[in-house]
Every structure is written in structure tokens, then in C-alpha cells.
Amino acid sequence: xxxxxxxxxxxxxxxxxxxxGYRARAAFKLMELxxxxxxxxxxxxxxxxxxxxxxxxxxxxxxxGKTGTVIALDILAMEPLQGVTFIEGDFREDxxxxxxxxxxxxxxxxxxxxxxxxxxxxxxxxxxxxSIYLAELALAFxxxxxxxxxxxxxxxxxxxxxxxxxxxxxxxxxxxxxxxPRASRPESREVYLVARRLKQG
Length: 201
Prior knowledge:
The chain is of the alpha/beta class. 41% of the residues lie in helices and 25% in strands. The longest helix is centred in the last third of the chain and has 22 residues, at 124-145.
């Protein structure tokens, strides 16, 4: 049996996701971030970048309720989720971004979630640079589309470029926290940056 398979079988979050009907263990990362930072509320407009297979969109949908709006985007196909608008496309390209902006109909959003990660090539510096680039794209989108009181949650890997990205978030937002949810594997370098309240001017 492969190490990955063994790890999946012994992972309590994988088991919980199956039992509770979530598409991936990542659902519990967002739940934990929400419990700590109170990110999700009924009636919010939420954009979920890097959404497939859809576990964050599931949590966002549940917690924003029937009056909420959840728009999800991913380069990979995603099984439909009731109440979630899905756009399939590469966020680095103009067309999917234009589709996403059209779906927003000019209205600002309350929360931008980005769990985007590059396809891992195994070449550490290259993978790290691509991870930072995706986080920068999420930041640029958030600056354009977030309501002034809104929040951005973005996954990033610690390493080259991390401190510079953190500095850019601190220039753009009043509050930036670095979070490592318990559901994030201890050996992973991933952390989540939770940024709130866009600075004026």
C-alpha cells in the first residue's frame, strides 16, 4: 500500500469528511478558520477561488444560507453543488476572470477565499514561486472586488517570497493574521493568511 493511501486511511479528517458528507478534508480547515475569525455569516457574497472538489464551497453555502451567494472557480471540473455558481477555467487567464466578474454583476463581495495551489512539479523553488503568484492574483482580485469591511483568506506556502507577500497584504489591509489550522497536515508548509478591512486610499 502506498504511503499516501496509508495516510488517507488513518487521517481522522478524511474519515470525518466521508461521514459528514464533505467532498474533502479541507472543509475542516475553513470551519476552523471561521470559528477563530468569524468569517462567514448569513446573506454574504462569497467568491471561492481554487474551489474543486468543492468542500470550501459546501461550507460557505451552509454558513451563508439561502440568502447568501457563493461563486466558485477552478481550472478543474467540479460536480455541481446546489446553490453554488461554478465557473470552470484558469484564474490566470482573462476569460474565466471576465466570467467571474460578470457573475458578480458589479456588486462587491464580503469574502474572497483562495485555496489555490499550483500543480506540484517537485522542483521546490519553481513550485514556491507559482504558489506565491497565485496568492498575489487572489490579493489583486480581492483589492478590486471586496467590500471595504470584507475579508480575504488565502493559502500560501512558507518559503521564498512569503514575507514579501505578507508585507503586501499588510499594505492593503488593516489586519492580517497567519493561521495554521489543526486540519492542515503538520508536515505541510501551508498556512492561511486572513486579511480584513481594506485600507482606504
